[in-house]
Request: fold
Amino acid sequence: MTAPPRRRPAPQRYQLGKQALTVLASGHPWIFRGLVSSAATALADGQWLRLVDGGNRVVGYGVYAAEGAIAIRVLARGPDRPTAATFAARIDRALAARAALTGETDGVRWLHGESDELPGVTIDGYGPVVVAHAYAAGVDALARFAARRIARATGATGVVAGAGHRRIATGGGAPRVIAGQVAAEVRFREGPLTLVARPLAGQKTGTFLDLRGLRRWLAAAPLAGASVLNLFAYTGALGLACEHAGATTIVQVDRAADALATAARHHVRDPARHRFVTADVFDWLPHAEPDARYQLVIVDPPSMTSRMEQVPQALAAYRRLHRAAAAGVAAGGTLVLACCTSRIARDRFRTAALAAVGDRFALAHELAAEVDHPVGFAEADYLKVLIFVARP
Reply:
């Protein structure tokens, strides 16, 4: 049996103002810092709250964060306090929604935070291992509860709990095994590919499950004999998909030497087709092989910022990057531009990318979110993948 989370003390009463009540009624899962009163400063980080209106009617439940733009993550709406049974039902709904994926892969995001009504909690499965992360104070026990329930439902033999909210933020601590045994590296299948994840390596396990759609697209693309430039390659999963599709020259660039070593060790079939370059892409790209032209260029940088005030600078960095990458695409070739900066809205990223690549390129395709990364609200639409084709 999966043990329920330890019963918490009764949630503390907190009265919402009119604007916050409007947000709650809209279905949005966050109440931002500017909509809470100064009384909130007396609340403990991670405190569970009983949310009331001006008439002292209970309108929902939430968990408080002492820092950051999000002050309250909504756990439930209405007068009924959420229980272990409430969260178990939500977990089971998330599992059912992903059932169709299991024919293709055993690498699945089983729980996707607020979009699955488990605020601040993500649960990823990599073959026999389930990895839980709690990205907000006060939900660590909920993450462990969800991970154990999902492991039981999926037959996973090992469960890893991430380092926790504060340690993720500071880069300290390490994940720990809370059930079964877990190897440092585990293999999982994804369509025609075999990928490797590092469940004990922390927040970055070595494989981004949200990019499955792009790997699927690349693995089926007409790349026989093609040359590929894979920028911000990390552990090379996209490069492996290109090799599967027939690419014969794959240049993979990343500043993390250990990530590229993992790529060379696990995500290569024919080493003669791959060249690994350890370099900062922003420094390397403007000066790298100025006459080289590739049939495919992939640009998938890490998030540029999590702060709204830095979005203009982030967009400027994307524009420089996209212009330089576009120059390396052969006539009739393909340019893939990805953005995981959540503060940049889809429309804004698309507009900036179109302006950067110019009239030589046409936007051919825009990938949708995978079923295990549901977009339950606007801010959850963080990953954008645009596919351009260069005119002949």
About this structure: The first strand starts at residue 12 and ends at 15. The chain has three domains: 12-77, 84-188, 208-390. The mean pLDDT is 93.
